[in-house]
Amino acid sequence: MINITNYETFFLLYADNELTADERDNVLFFVNENPELRDEFESIISTVVSPERDIVYAGKHFLYVDSADDLEKMYSFKPNLEIQYPHKEELYRYEKSFRIGWVKSFMVAASIILIAGLFWMLIPANDQSKEIKTVANKQEISSTKGSSSRLKKERAINQPNAITSIGDKKVAIVNNIVKLKKNKGVEKKIDNSESVVSSTKQVENSFEIQNISTEVVDQIMVDPIVVAEPIFVNNIESNDTRIRQDNSLVNTNISPTRKTPFRGIIRKISRIIGKDRPESDQVKFIQVANFQLAIAQ
Amino acid sequence: MTDKEFNICVDAYADPVYRFILKNLKQEEDARDVVQSAFEKMWLNREKVINETAKSFLFTVAYNLMIDHIRKNKRVQLTESFKEEIMIGEGIAHGFKRELELALDRLTTLQKSLILLKDYEGYSYDEIGKITGLNGSQVKVYLHRARLQLKTYIGKPENII
Fold first, then answer.
1. What is the mean pLDDT of chain B?
2. What's residue A20's pLDDT?
3. CB A168 within 8 A of CB A255
4. Which residues in chain A are closer than 8 Å to B96, comparing Cβ atoms?
């Protein structure tokens, strides 16, 4: 209900035309009873803006639509394909393509090298067996010949690091290299292991080596024996005997002609791959490069 | 909405929308562009718009287009506000109605839009709220504040002949 405290709100609602007919009558009645508020009421009513009917939109004919198809044509455009850019050549760009031709050739070469290396890795085992046999045969021959030229032997002794060239191979014998203690246990061990100790056995049968084995030198000087593969016998132990060879070593250098950078790679590979040999060898050992470490069974 | 219904809407609502926009922008060309864009939008959305909501849709789109136009042309509005001072002086000589228009121009765009939508088109608070993005209570409060500002401006003796 309108009163002296809320009349302004009712006046504004009256101006907004938000009152019902009864409420509008009540407002008019309130204004008549309070003439001092009439000016305020009229000032609020005067804020109502009457629409100007004379203002019309002149561009209605642009908005009319005859049919939907016409309007679709109006708002749709088709490209004029005859308009072409004249200098397309200047816009062309070419990126540098990645050529894989050399990669292919490199891969083929690498695979060939790998295959050849794997094949090459198998050769030392064959050479070793052959050369061990050669050592045995030659030592037998040398035993029959007996003591031949002492002069050459002495020369070999006088030259500790003498390198003897045999054919296209060289055999280096270093002083105090070969220290083998004659022992029965060794023989037993040698019997059990063919490849490693066979050469030792042959040597033991033919001559005894102490410190500098002059017989070996003589043998090597007279009969060119090639012990191509280094045989490293270290700490061979068994239940029956205990063999100590105090870092005894039979060291024979490989022919330099066979040393190639590629062979070094193969050696590294053989460290990983060639640890175990097939059981047909009947000797378990670990091959590190050209050195074979016998494993006690 | 068919093309016939669209044409009926053009006849019925083009003038009110144009008046509403013209009163706010004070530029006929701009007002025409806004009206044309509003009808174009309605045609593009003719599948969603029905006859009952066509008027509200047109006013809503026109109001938003007008706000965008005002934001883009604020610098131009400053120039126009300078002209307004001149027009105020001219308006004094043309009576109360002219004075009311000048007072109306002193309101903000929102306040002016609320008053025009209320007085020109007779929309309710809620309908105005849908057009302007407000709720009914906000429209009522803002509208009353605008009327009181108009009353205050008109009530000053220096503004009344």
1. 82
2. 92
3. yes
4. 46
